[in-house]
Every structure is written in structure tokens, then in C-alpha cells.
Amino acid sequence: MSGRRFRRIVLLVLAAGIGWWIYKDRPTASGLIDSITNPLMGSKAAVQSSERNRVVGDATSAITDQTDGVVRALHEGMTLSEVRDTLGNPDRIEQAKVDGAYETRWIYSRLKRVIVMRDGRVTSIVID
Predict the structure, then answer these.
(1) Which of 101, 128, 108, 107 is nearest to 120 (CA)?
(2) What would the mean pLDDT of 26-30 be, rounded to a whole number?
(3) Does residue 17 belong to any structural domain of this protein?
(4) Cα maximum dimension of the chain
(5) Which terminus of the chain is more solvent-facing, meaning fewer CB atoms within 10 Å of its CB: N or C?
(6) 13 in a structural domain
(7) In the chain, how many domains are there?
(8) Host domain of residue 89
(9) pLDDT tens digits for range 78-118
(10) Inside any domain, residue 30
(11) pLDDT given at position 10
């Protein structure tokens, strides 16, 4: 058997083997990349979990920064409409008669604040 013929047979067997592997496993580009990078980066689930934790952490700090700025804008003497414009609608509203005057409490659970108002003005801000 000549060398040229032997090389052709080896190439034919190699091509048939690759063809059989493709037919049997149906590999994808992402699957090939994952199989190469898994030993380096850990499992795909671990990478996704890590990415999720990073995104949630970034979002939490952004929300906290926005909330702190909004809460700092509160001060005694604000009107009902100013508070509503600043914080939005309260989660709960309670009314009570204290020392002969009606007092309204706007409760913002997510901000952990209670805004106490008399005669349409903020009289105190309670950290809940």
C-alpha cells in the first residue's frame, strides 16, 4: 500500500469519525465553548449565580442611593402635596386625635419612615 493511499484512508476514517460524532451528539458552538471553559470558570450555574448576585448588589446600592437622597429632602413644615411629590403615595394612612387636634400619619414601609402631619403640614418625621 502506498503512502498516498494510506493517507487517504486515514483522512476518510477521520472524516467518518467526525461525521458520526456530529450525528450522535449534535454539538453546538456554545456547548463546545462551555466544555472547554468549565474547568477554568466552574459550572455554568455558578457563573450565572455569581452574575445574578452582582446585578442584584448593584441594583440594591442604586436604590439605596436614590432612597437616601429622597429621604434627605424631607423636612418639617412641608405640605401634603410636597411630601406626596417627594415620596409618592404612602403605604398606609392613619388618623388619630392627639391633644385635641387631629394628626395624620403617612406610613412609608419601604423607606421605614412615618410622616406625622397636623393642619396639612409635617410636624415630625419618625424613623420606623
Answers:
(1) 101
(2) 77
(3) no
(4) 114
(5) N
(6) no
(7) 1
(8) 74-128
(9) 888 888 888 889 999 999 888 888 899 999 888 888 899 98
(10) no
(11) 92
